[in-house]
Amino acid sequence: MDSSVYPNKDVIAASKTTVNIFCNNETEHAKDKKYGNEEWCEHNYGQKCDEHVANHNALSSKFFSGSIPNPTTILCTPDGTEIARKKGAPSNKELIDMIKAAATKVGPGLGRDEYLFAKDKMKAAEEQIAAGKTPDAIKTLQTVTKTFAKNPAAKPALDAAQKKLDDLNQAGMDRIAAAKEAAAAGNVEEARKELKDVYNSCKGLECSKAAEKEMAALPKAK
Amino acid sequence: MSRLAVTAMLLASSLAWAGDRDKKEKPAAVPADSIRWASSWEEALAEAKERNVPIQVAFHKDH
Predict the structure, then answer these.
(1) Could you tell me if B2 lies within 8 Å of chain A, comparing CB atoms?
(2) Is the separation of the CB atoms in A181 and A214 below 8 Å?
């Protein structure tokens, strides 16, 4: 089955609407098959044999009380509750139909490609924030919020990106408050410099507009 | 059998062995796309919850 069904492009497309886990406690096949410069299980590109053996050991008693008919395909809800089971090798169409029915029952869900896109962008944004590249981080996070604005399945990714934007905005607002205190204490040029930096580095956020407004309110430089 | 013939046979067999070895070690092409398999049940549960999607559990044997 793994050599005919799983490489099928329509099955691969359907698999992007689920999370997939492979369970096999046998390793008579090649354990470290070379794919380019990488080594993976002969049957599953991207998986180590140790993983599918551990998955089998962890899940066999959860889904079977006696012997395990192989192959068996089980569809579960996100919390692991079984909703469909097929003993024996399904055809491509049978497997796709099983996946579609389960996805309809559980969904709306976020596709694998969109999920990985959001994950990559969030990781990039975190690295940009850590490196002090706030303008880049804002652009990256706004890519996530714009891409998923109308996708209800992407709410967790959308919320996470918006939370980071809110945090950056709050940090800018805090800097503005500190700059205003500095100006009130007579350190006008120090305040102007800080406000200008908030204005430039936080474009696209409310704090940038607020910094611009506060700069305009400062006494003119002599 | 002459010494020359034995040497030739040994050379031919070692070349054939080397050929087989090279053939076996030739890497497979990285698939353009493939099913992504979760590395563990815990990872599968966490991702399925985050994405709100079903989990496909596939049980197999080699033979």
Answers:
(1) no
(2) no
Q: How close does chain B come to A127, measured CA to CA in Å?
A: 22
Query: In which element (H, E) is residue A190 found?
Result: helix A188-201
B36 CB within 8 Å of a chain A CB = yes
pLDDT tens, chain A, 222 aa long:
556 688 899 999 999 999 999 999 887 777 777 887 888 888 888 888 999 999 999 999 999 998 889 899 999 999 999 999 999 999 999 999 999 999 999 989 999 999 999 999 999 999 999 999 999 999 999 999 999 999 989 998 999 999 999 999 999 999 999 999 999 999 999 999 999 999 999 999 999 999 999 999 998 876
User: Which segments within chain A are labelled E, that is strand?
Assistant: 19-23, 33-35, 38-40, 72-76, 82-87
On whether residue A195 sits in a domain, the answer given is yes
A75 assigned to some structural domain? yes
A76 and A145 fall within a common domain: no
Contact A19 B31 (CB under 8 A): no
| Residues on chain A touching B60 (C-beta within 8 angstroms) | 1-2, 22-24, 43, 70-71
Token pair of A36 as six digits: 């380019």
Does one domain contain both A119 and A101?
A: no
